């Protein structure tokens, strides 16, 4: 499983990279704050919203701690997606930056 730390992601965003970030948390969690530019697709909606996720380019998956985004990554890989990256530590670590 490919991973990225919140620090690495923050640096890439500060460098002006145009990244695809999918936040798989629930709406009440996202209401407390999101990474700028992230797209919100709750984990349970991913099967119905596959068309909104790039199939073969880098896509960074984010959740609260890294567990749900890891499950999303495994599911998407099983559907033939490539280029998926899990943000370890999730928003809990992001908020400490």
From TrEMBL:
Family matches, as Gene3D superfamilies: Rhodanese-like domain
All residue ranges annotated as the Rhodanese domain in the record: 15-96
Coiled-coil segments: none
Database matches in InterPro entries: GlpE_sulfurtransferase, Rhodanese-like_dom, Rhodanese-like_dom_sf
A Pfam cross-reference name: Rhodanese
Domain of life: Bacteria
Protein name, entry field: Rhodanese-like domain-containing protein
């Amino acid at each position: 499983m490919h991973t990225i730390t919140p620090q690495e992601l923050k640096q890439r965003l500060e460098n002006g990279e145009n990244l695809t970030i999918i936040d798989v948390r629930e709406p009440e969690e996202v209401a407390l704050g999101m990474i700028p530019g992230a797209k919100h697709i709750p984990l349970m909606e991913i099967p119905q919203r596959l068309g909104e996720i790039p199939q073969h380019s880098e896509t960074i998956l984010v959740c609260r701690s890294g567990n749900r985004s890891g499950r999303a990554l495994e599911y998407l890989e099983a559907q033939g997606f490539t280029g998926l990256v899990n943000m370890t530590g999730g928003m809990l670590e992001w908020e400490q930056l």
